[in-house]
Design a protein that fits this description.
This protein is α/β, with parallel strands linked by helices. The chain has 12 helices and 10 strands. Helix 7 links the parallel strand 4 and strand 5. The relative contact order is 0.15. The protein has a single domain, classed as Aldolase class I (TIM Barrel), CATH 3.20.20.70. Helix 3 runs parallel beside helix 5 and helix 6 packs parallel to helix 7. Strands 1-2-3-4-5-8-9-10 form an 8-stranded parallel beta barrel, surrounded by 7 helices. The chain has a two-stranded antiparallel ribbon with strand order 6-7. Bound molecules: orotidine-5'-monophosphate (OMP). Orotidine-5'-monophosphate (OMP) binds next to strand 10 and helix 11.
């Protein structure tokens, strides 16, 4: 399968963004939300929560992001619930990002890539979040696997939580410069995407299969992250931190600058707290606000 030229995950993402705008509905069945929704804190509860969220998102948002942790706490029954939620989203034509934040040495990470990104696998998603603490190089084989299968990955680079600043602003020596850890991760992912495009086949509209996670609460300038120049191929950005964590979705262009066209605006609690009866309206309202802000 080709990628980066509009046929792989980058192409799928581009179509979803064109059709629905950048809103990604997080599926985070916290206990307080299960209670508010009148659901049990159980595998059956998270299953129902996930399926109802997919139903509300269908035709309103192009992307959902189930937070694997909230399903995993119920063991195999929780995973069975997650499989159903992922399948329902796929059947509804919604892009799925499994928020599993996996990281390990390359051979073990390959197992995770197989679990989440193999077409037909029980936990098949369109993309998975990964943690580069063991080095972006440890992700290389998995990134190739993703791209070969028309799938995507989002590599944590500048995360939304305040505790991350110390490690992510640490300086890394590169041949020509010294850059922050966040910047180094973004550069490495961008280099991977560029390398997947055949030499001489540069295509102005290409979108990479591998993206980065950049939290909307981060001060990018202070963290050495450059959002002033577009990447080629375009770099998909998963941007949590909107809504409950304080960033305003309507400020997406101001915050993400040249990266805005492929920035995914992810919100979980701020939408989900509308409850099962109000969720569809909440998604419609946020999607419309975003479309208006991006005109
Ligand atoms: O990878 C993520 O999605 C992620 C990265 C990050 O830097 N910060 C962050 O909050 N997240 C996830 O995004 C979601 C945010 O949820 P809300 O704060 O309720 O919108 C949670 O599932 C987090 O695990």
């Amino acid at each position: 399968m080709s990628d980066g030229l509009g046929f792989g995950f980058g192409g799928v993402l581009r179509s979803a963004l064109e059709a629905f705008g950048p809103l990604c509905v997080g599926i985070d069945p916290h206990d307080f939300l299960l209670q508010e929704w009148g659901l049990a804190s159980s595998a059956a509860g998270v299953r129902e929560f996930g399926l109802r969220t997919v139903e509300a998102a269908a035709g309103r948002a192009g992307i959902v992001k189930p937070q694997v942790a909230f399903f995993e706490r119920f063991g195999s029954a929780g995973y069975a619930a997650l499989e159903e939620v992922l399948a329902a989203a796929r059947a509804a034509g919604i892009i799925t990002i499994a928020d599993a934040k996996r990281g390990d040495i390359d051979t073990s990470l390959a197992g995770y890539a197989e679990a989440w990104l193999t077409p037909g696998a029980p936990l098949e998603a369109d993309a998975v979040t990964v943690n580069p603490f063991q080095g972006v190089g440890s992700l290389a084989a998995a990134m190739e696997y993703a791209a070969d299968n028309g799938k995507g990955m989002f590599v944590l680079a500048a995360t939304s939580n305040p505790e991350a600043t110390e490690i992510q602003t640490a300086q890394v020596k590169r041949p020509d410069s010294t850059v922050s850890v966040s910047r180094a991760i973004i550069d490495d992912v961008s280099a991977f995407n560029a390398g997947r495009i055949d030499a001489g086949a540069a295509y102005a509209g290409a979108v990479g299969s591998i993206g980065v996670v950049l939290g909307a609460t981060v001060d990018f300038a202070a963290q050495g992250v450059d959002v002033t120049a577009p990447k080629s191929p375009a770099l998909p950005v998963l941007a949590p931190g909107f809504g409950h964590q304080g960033a305003q979705a309507t400020r997406v262009r101001e915050l993400f600058g040249a990266l805005t066209p492929f920035t995914i605006v992810a919100e979980s609690r701020s939408l989900l707290q509308a409850g099962p009866a109000g969720l569809a309206v909440a998604i419609d309202e946020r999607a419309a606000e975003l479309r208006a802000a991006l005109v």
